[in-house]
Amino acid sequence: MPTYIAPVEDMMFLFEKLKNNKHYNEIEKYKEVSSELVKNILEEAAKINQNIILPLAKSGDENPTVLENGVVRTPPGYKEAYTKYIEDGWTSLSCDPKYGGQGMPKTVSAFFDEMLSSASLSFKLYSELSIGAYNCISHHATDDIKNKYLPKMVEGKWSGTMCLTEPVCGTDLGLLKTKATEQSDGTYKLSGQKIFITSGDQDLTENIVHLVIARASDSPNGTKGISLFLVPKFLVKDDGSIGSRNGVSTGSIENKMGIKGSATCVLNFDDAVGYMIGPKNKGLNAMFTMMNLERIVVGIQGLGISEIAYQNSLNYAKERKQGKANNSKLSDGADFILEHADIKKSLLNMKSIIEGERALCFWLSQQTEVSLNHQDKKVRQEASDFVSLMTPVVKTMFTDMGMEITSEAMQVHGGYGYTKDQGIEQLYRDNRITPIYEGTNSIQAADLVFRKLVNKNGDIIKKYLDMMKNDCKIENDNMKFFVKELDYHIKILSNFTDWIKEKVQKSKDDASAACNDYLKTLGFVSIAYAWVKVLEVSFKDYNNNKNFYEDKIQTANFYFKRVLPRAESHFKIATTGSDYIMKFKFI
Amino acid sequence: MPTYIAPVEDMMFLFEKLKNNKHYNEIEKYKEVSSELVKNILEEAAKINQNIILPLAKSGDENPTVLENGVVRTPPGYKEAYTKYIEDGWTSLSCDPKYGGQGMPKTVSAFFDEMLSSASLSFKLYSELSIGAYNCISHHATDDIKNKYLPKMVEGKWSGTMCLTEPVCGTDLGLLKTKATEQSDGTYKLSGQKIFITSGDQDLTENIVHLVIARASDSPNGTKGISLFLVPKFLVKDDGSIGSRNGVSTGSIENKMGIKGSATCVLNFDDAVGYMIGPKNKGLNAMFTMMNLERIVVGIQGLGISEIAYQNSLNYAKERKQGKANNSKLSDGADFILEHADIKKSLLNMKSIIEGERALCFWLSQQTEVSLNHQDKKVRQEASDFVSLMTPVVKTMFTDMGMEITSEAMQVHGGYGYTKDQGIEQLYRDNRITPIYEGTNSIQAADLVFRKLVNKNGDIIKKYLDMMKNDCKIENDNMKFFVKELDYHIKILSNFTDWIKEKVQKSKDDASAACNDYLKTLGFVSIAYAWVKVLEVSFKDYNNNKNFYEDKIQTANFYFKRVLPRAESHFKIATTGSDYIMKFKFI
Q: Is A182 in the active site?
């Protein structure tokens, strides 16, 4: 079974040393979130993840969830762990104190999300969508609904789901068929089938709050006729206690390649009572509040799984002896594989991507908080645009890199990596859902290129590029190499951006065929940008923590020499256009 | 369950139109292998693979092999299929008629290997190592041994294995501990444990012929003291009939991520009777005969799995509707996803790599035959050096590209790709062993760079580069773009080669840290070289089969625009050296 030590030191480094973010620091309600408090939280988080949740990964993989007599049974140990998990208040971490939450910013909760993803993605998914549903309800529902549902969800006694996909509509929600018929009391009755519903049923919570998109009987076709409904598994009485079973049942659960401890359900809605959330026919807008935050968390899942894959690869490389290193001092026998240049390279590849991603994610968490909580509307808007821009990037890069990293981890383990005993192959299988769900990575790339670069608020990508260029003007000899490299790649990104903006207007297929590559270029450059922020601190603060900062500088060095340069190839290849692709006739 | 139609047309195109290989055509014994005969064989091969073997893939995944009372039981259907398979003579395809074989060249048997890999890799593995063992025995054993064992192996009634790995030695065979003690009658008794033995036991054949490397009691340590032994599961009497059980038993079988229908065994040898094959202490040389041919077949496995993944992705893209294409003619509803630029690009990526690989593999099969069967020793040697050079390239490129392609296939299938129902995720899991076994892909890359570029016969890579340059001098307007691109990338490869040759001499860690990238560059260029051969025919013969050739030309166009250019990035990144990697201290 893989081992795991939560990277609290790196997280605290980010929290303490990269806090220097003007707008974030202006948020009133987080001024009391001290380093000491955060350190305590992360240390407690490390304990529950390392000790209680990590063993659930193997348990869930070996004993997948089952559907028995219409009820989903989670794997052995999940119930006990979940009880402890909510007793300790982990579901409430980022929620509003008004509903019993701890009110921690995303700069803290994102670290917790990462740890939980490292420990057990399957287990994580039982509470993850609850937070998504919480966010959606707290932004769009009436006070009545909020007061009735949110405290129980924050407490973790009730959970939440997101019901979008149907058999004929995954990516394309406009095709959805689930119907909602208004009743005389203003409630609705929903009928239809939803598929791929994560945690659609389970035996961990007393109630499940489904957020369902459906079409009201008098709504138009397509995406403009979609409304959002809250449909509880058990109806909730006026006093907040649980009433009779609602018309929602689990048709089946998916047999999947990985995340086998997570129940992926087919849910059948048969005249299920639902309450409309937000305005009629604006359901997708409300749902996207939830989806966008959720997409960042999926990116964090990729980061978390990468981290545990890296840790175990490094441990194995320190223990396993095979072959003589080029500069071996041995006369007989074999060296630790960590001494082999190729293995060292592979480990540094993992490490430099992971730490860069974590820094980028921290910056994005700051932006998210600014977008939600800054006093100035204009500042909020600007941050929100950056968050929108980077959401598909983080979702896609972190999950794709997660595949690269878990794959490299398997290679480091050789034949043992392919067997179930080591648990490395499980990380690879579990992570493989992340480039697919919450919108495939290609959908993310299209979203980025067609909707996020330029929006009604202006030329967002230009602002982002300007910000990077500006932050890159650092006069420091130590930074010279890094700044030069980043600058060079920002220019490539700028050229790619000009090209793709034009194509979005004049030749959409060119843009579509290039969007994955564009996202990668933006991703590699953004991670480099995050590294530059880390490097600035590392050089300035060097003498206070030499070993730590030297490690950072050398890790960054690898990133700038071997990872960042991949960006250019994406630019060159993608800008060959698409006419030769589109005219191809598949037989 | 995935469907599969064997690509007989493409295979016959290669066999008929790319046969123009001087030395290959000089091989006497293949002059009678006509197109008609080959077509008949491939059509029969298509039938058994499509109808009988394909269903075994799912069966094996759902009902993995089990070890019951010391006996391995293969999945349901394997026994019946195997009986039919040997009745039809498929094990004998490439074997010597002297032992009952059909004497087909590898230019034919490689196509069969591909089909079988597409249909079911797990099932394939039960006969694949038999062919490896057959080759090894027929090259290195005495006539007595050959006459006793080979006819039954050719018939498929007995199978073969390759027993190398031990718990502490996978990559590094010098560490092996299995002991062989000579007996007074000249036989040996072997004791030790071998792990990861593919088809180490099964219930398909009457006997199993293990080829085992071990150290004779009086042999030196390290790789110089390794000898090769034939150890049958059941001892064979002088009349060729089966006698008593030998001291070989199955300790356990591995629980793996994929190829679950294949038994991966721990074999315990307890005073097992063994017969030395080839000279004492030269066991690794003999084993490498087997390993090298086997490594090419592992590459072909990656190609076969890529092909079935591609076919099913294309079918799905033609059936599944989601979203509107950029140039949609629909007013309502959704287009087939095949109309989306991004999906088209993904399918062309798969197709252009697969068809290029198949062409390269065909060239390599020709070279292999020349290396084994040409009348002129010098010609044999030159071909053999090219085969040695390209073996790690084909093994690594085809299996790595197999991961890319099966991963893209999952993305095309969206959420359905992650469920067991579609069977796409199984292709991804099954293929994941191919970059690991028969020497991890990093070991292949090190082998290429340190042992294959230059050997005792001279500067092999220079000869290979010269050959490509020479074959690239084509005066044809249609070929201009392709030739120019290949030429450009041959130059990059040449520069990379010069760099790495120097590093092999002067700075081995630089070479080690670059070897994976070097292999990729050589691989991408070699596939382009194979494409150029296909293109030459396609333009010349265009009017005789317009649709087919137009498809080839457009597919190649994609390869040269979007795949080949990846090579350059590998060159740039790898030549940044390794000092910053080697001095990194992992905490």
A: no
SS3 state of residue B490: helix
Buried b (16+ CB within 10 A) or exposed e, B368-390: bbbbbbbeeeebbebbbbbbbbb
pLDDT digits (tens, 9 = 90+) for A371-400: 999 999 999 999 999 999 999 999 999 999
Using one digit for the tens of pLDDT, what is the confidence trace for A274-284? Answer: 999 999 999 99
Measure Cα distances from A229 to A223, A453, B191, B456 in Å. Answer: 15, 31, 69, 75
If one counts every other C-beta atom within 10 angstroms of the C-beta of residue A216, the result is 20
Q: Which residues of B touch A338 (CB under 8 A)?
A: 586
Helix (H) or strand (E) holding B500: helix B480-506
Q: Do A432 and B441 touch (CB under 8 A)?
A: no
List the structure tokens of A237: 């009485």
**Mean pLDDT of the A69-78 span:** 96
Residue whose entry in the numeric block shows the structure tokens 């059909």: B102
Residue A288 burial class via C-beta count within 10 angstroms: exposed 0-12, middle 13-18, buried 19 and up: middle
- CB-CB neighbors (< 8 A) of B347 in chain A: 586
* 8 A C-beta contact, residue B153 and residue B146: no
Verify whether the Cβ–Cβ distance A554 to B580 is below 8 Å: yes
Crossing angle of helices B35-47/B8-17, nearest 10°?
160
Would the CB atoms of B562 and A576 count as touching at under 8 Å?
yes
* DSSP codes joined into one string, B23-36: HHHT-GGGTT--HH
Distance of alpha carbon A312 from alpha carbon A416, whole angstroms: 12
For B419, half-sphere exposure in the C-beta direction (CA atoms, 13 angstrom radius) is 18
Angle B235-B240-B245 from CA coordinates, rounded to 5°:
15
What's the sign of the alpha-carbon dihedral A539, A545, A548, A554?
positive
Continuous H helices in A141-282: 143-155
Structure tokens at B456: 């005792």
Residue in A348, A432, A565 nearest the CB of B418: A432
**Domain spans in chain B, listed from the N-terminal domain onward:** 457-587
pLDDT-based confidence at residue A344 (cuts at 50, 70, 90): very high
This complex has an ipTM of: 0.96
* DSSP secondary structure code for residue A222 in this structure: G
- Cβ neighbours for B490, distance < 8 A, ≥ 6 positions apart: B465, B468, B469, B472, B525
- From the candidates A438, A475, A550, A568, give the one annotated as an active-site residue: A438
B301, B397 contact by CB (below 8 A): no
**CA–CA dist A369, A389 (Å, integer):** 15
pLDDT reported for residue B587: 84
Question: A344 and B584 in contact by Cβ < 8 A?
Answer: yes
pLDDT tens digits for range B77-91: 999 999 999 999 999
Which residue has tokens 């009545």?
Answer: A144
DSSP structural state of residue A166: B
C-alpha distance from A391 to closest chain B C-alpha (Å): 19
Cα–Cα separations (whole angstroms), residue A349 to A265, A343, B124: 37, 10, 35
> Contact A576/B561, CB-based, under 8 Å?
yes
pTM for this prediction: 0.97
- How does strand A188-198 pair with strand A179-182? antiparallel
Contact status of A358 with chain B (Cβ, < 8 Å) = no
Nearest to B12 by CA among B118, B117, B103, B115: B115
Report the alpha-carbon distance of residue B437 to residue A420 in Å, rounded: 16
Q: Is B275 on the interface with A (CB under 8 A)?
A: no
- Residue A231 clears pLDDT 80, i.e. is over it: yes
- Least Cα distance to A496 among A573, A560, A426, A552 occurs for A573
H/E stretch holding B315: helix B283-319
Restricting to A residues 317-346, those with a Cβ less than 8 Å away from any Cβ of B are: 317-318, 321-323, 326-327, 332-334, 338, 340-346
SS3 content of chain A, % helix, strand, coil (to 5): 60, 15, 25
